[in-house]
Amino acid sequence: MVRDRLVFGIRNDRIREKLLTQGSTLTLTTAINTSRAMEETQAQLLTMNEAEHKTAIKQEVDVVSKYPECYMCGGQYSRGHKCPAKGKTCSKCGKINHYARVCKSKTVHQLGIAGTSSGSQDIHALDFSPCSGSELYIDSIHSMNQTKDHHIDLYFSTQKKYISFKLDTGADANILPFKEYERCCPRPTLNKTNSILTSYTNGKLNVYGVCEAEIQYKDRPGQKHKFFVVDTQKVPIISRQTSVDLGLVKFIFDVQTMQPCPDRIKIMIDQYADVFEGIGQLPGVCKLTLKEGAVPTVQPPKRVPFALEKRLKAELDRLEQMKIIEKVTKPTDWVNSVVIVEKANGNLRICLDPVDLNKNLKRPHYPIPTFESITQRCAGAKIFSKLDATSGFWSMMLDDESSDLTTFNTIYGRYKFKRYPFGLNSAQDDFQRKMEEAFENLNLGLIVDDIVICGADDSEHDERLKAALERAREKNVKFNQEKCVFGAESIPYFGHLLTSEGIKPDPEKTRAITEMPPPENSEQLQKLLGMLNYLSRYIPNLSSLNKSLRELVRADEYKWKPAHEKAFSKIKSALCSNLAYFDPKCENIEVKVDASKHGLGAVLAVDDNVVAFGSRSMSETEQQYSQIEKELLAVVFGCKHFHQYIYGRTITITTDHKPLESILVKPISKAPPRLQRMMLSIQPYSLKFVYRPGSEIPVADTLSRLHTPDLDNENEKQVEVFVHTLFKNLPIANGKMEKIRNATCTELRKLSQTILYGWPLS
User: Fold this and answer.
1) What span, in angstroms and rounded, lies between the C-alpha atoms of 695 and 691?
2) Between 717 and 484, whose confidence is greater?
3) Torsion sign over Cα 269, 272, 276, 281
């Protein structure tokens, strides 16, 4: 069970002991929440005690002090100073009265890929100095290619043979033993380095220098990486970042409880393992058609920071080796711009910005199947599976003429996409057509990149699933196994649950209503009543249900009583049970969004009939965004929340923020960095923006104020932790920091607060 692997894979003895005391009553969710809570508590205690645990690659710093170093905490104090480590427990050996950084214990535990440990003393858990790049925070790691003892064979170009490397996700640098370096022919240039490498045991390693070499895993494109050449008899080490770059490990920031996959289907998946690897290539080519009178545009290359130039070239080379793009030397009429985004792991993402091209493209307008046509195939079904295509648009090849239209400019020259790039408004139509052609005459349902397979029993379901996987292999279609569901009794599909008992509404689409908190004051209650009046056609007998709420608005004192709570619950229940069904064939799809000071709200409507709701709170960081950033964040939230409904369709985004209209028609590259990231995240969607006053979109406005607690904002939490950690560890004395605070201009501080939070009430 996943729960048991989690418990026994935890290295922290205290957390494991806490979980084991709960016995058979322990659930996976409880185990995760308990572990996170205890980890956060221990981290806060370490921070309060100024305990630091740093491991080696670091630049030498000469520290001069007139006081000796304390053997208990590592600090330097005058005689008589009380040591903060007294009475504290070492996280390394478990003994008291000292910190882990000065621990002299020889017992060392190494984090393995699958959460196992090793007793080796020469463990190279390495960490770069600040000059080497950004620090990565890892929640959990999942091995995609696990081998015995966490070793993996990589092709080392300088030796022209395979070398067995050890994957160390705790290391920030690659290690190449000197004996392996001597075997290289020709030997790569060995450059001097001032870096010092130390192990967990604080022993210094003899570093000969650093070299650059190309390594390759299986048939994937080779990549150049830096290796520290070290005098050691141990095996070569691949660092955390290199492991990610090669696709050997990946980060997982969320844990979800999934329905277990039956063993018989696991065997089938293993038989078709190639269908879940790489990027597919559908038969034939696609053609982009320009409107009559289209005027070509040529965008100049955008300047790139010097620090990103080499990484940009490496990413262009990688995409070229994958045959996603190719170099262009001939003249082309159309030249688009691109936006370069740095991801959390340090890699770059190259995104086409085809604003001008989209305005001049003809859409094929290929018909999308109706929801009823899909569900008809599920009549009497008991077992369900759902397949999700990997990088769907990239699986479509473009003809030469169409490929020329996607030419884009960089500081390294022009390139063009050989495959359908994300962001073109005709992509979803062509993809639906190509997928239907690939899977024709099979008993399955298909809407864009989602394929539904069902059966009345295991035998019928498995037969249809195998036929779909066999056809995918034949037509070179690839699926994302992480997003697929196999052999389940129910699956979510376009706002519904396809279950063995029939079609049911998906509770997720009404969660924003069912979990809506009661209004805290008369103003919020008025907003709520306005929203209910707007939705009155979905709430039978609304006037009698909300009578007590209307009386509370007119009352001299606002006091929420059980009678009000009862009426509030009845209204929410009536609203959730009378929403409209979503029809994928419908053209008039609208997402209404709004942002308040503390929350985001979104409503999905088809032909002005409400289908689903969404809301969430904003993190402390997001609450300090400017208003236009908050409003665009609401758009991003609405698109992501209703992704299953709107992906592959042209939809209308309704907002009460007029400036959004003007900034969203500009090229992404001309927007501020934060808006750039948000605009890029909605690139896969075909959106039309419409402005309406807030009074005309009361539902989204109310949801943004009476929002649900945020449950899906782990990334922002990581950012907050990182920012606060940086602040707490600035190399500035507390007294100096206090002087800086006091010296800050009072008027500017008041102006800053006014911009962020508005004018004071008095």
Assistant:
1) 12
2) 484
3) negative
Q: What is the DSSP string of 375-403?
A: HHTTTT--EEEEEEBTTGGGGSEEPHHHH
pTM of the model: 0.49
The backbone torsions φ and ψ at residue 225, rounded to the nearest 5 degrees and listed phi first, read: -140, 155
Q: List the structure tokens of 568.
A: 């509030």
Q: Kindly tell me the burial class for residue 230, based on how many C-beta atoms sit within 10 Å of its own C-beta (0-12, 13-18, 19 or more).
A: buried
Q: How far is CA 754 from CA 62, 693, 749, in A?
A: 45, 24, 9
Q: pLDDT at residue 125 above 60? A: no
**Nearest to residue 593, comparing CAs of 638, 557, 528, 555?**
638
Per-residue pLDDT tens digits for 550-565: 888 888 888 888 888 8
User: Would you state the structure tokens that stand for residue 234, as one six-digit string?
Assistant: 């141990």
- The enclosing H or E element of 715 equals helix 714-728
Which range among 368-382, 477-491, 527-541 has the greatest average pLDDT?
477-491
Q: Which helix (H) or strand (E) holds 542?
A: helix 542-545
- Helix (H), strand (E), coil (C) string for 233-272: CCCCEECHHHHHHCCCEEECCCCCCCCCCCHHHHHHHHHC
Distance CA 326, CA 316 (A): 9
Beta-carbon contacts of residue 724 (< 8 Å; ≥ 6 apart): none
Question: What domains, with CATH codes, occur in the chain?
Answer: 1-48 (no CATH), 130-251 (2.40.70.10), 263-505 (3.30.70.270), 510-576 (3.30.70.270), 580-762 (3.30.420.10)
Give the sign of the dihedral formed by CA 38, CA 39, CA 44, CA 46: positive
- What is the CB neighbour count within 10 angstroms for residue 630? 22
The predicted pLDDT at position 107 comes to 38
Task: Name the pairing type of β-strands 599-606 and 686-691.
Answer: unpaired
| Residue-wise pLDDT tens digits, 224-258 | 888 888 888 778 888 888 887 787 776 554 444 45
Per the listing, tokens 């070569």 go with 236
User: Structure tokens of 477?
Assistant: 């279609």
pLDDT of 571-621, one tens digit each?
888 777 666 667 666 778 899 999 888 888 888 888 878 888 888 888 877
**DSSP label at residue 303:** P
- List helix spans (H) across 115-262: 178-183, 240-245
The first and second tokens of residue 115, run together, are 């959460």
The residue among 384, 556, 400 whose CA lies nearest residue 486 is 384
3-state DSSP helix/strand/coil % of the chain, to nearest 5 = 35, 20, 40
629 and 681 Cβ atoms separated by less than 8 Å: no
Within 10 angstroms of residue 420's Cβ, the number of other Cβ atoms is 27
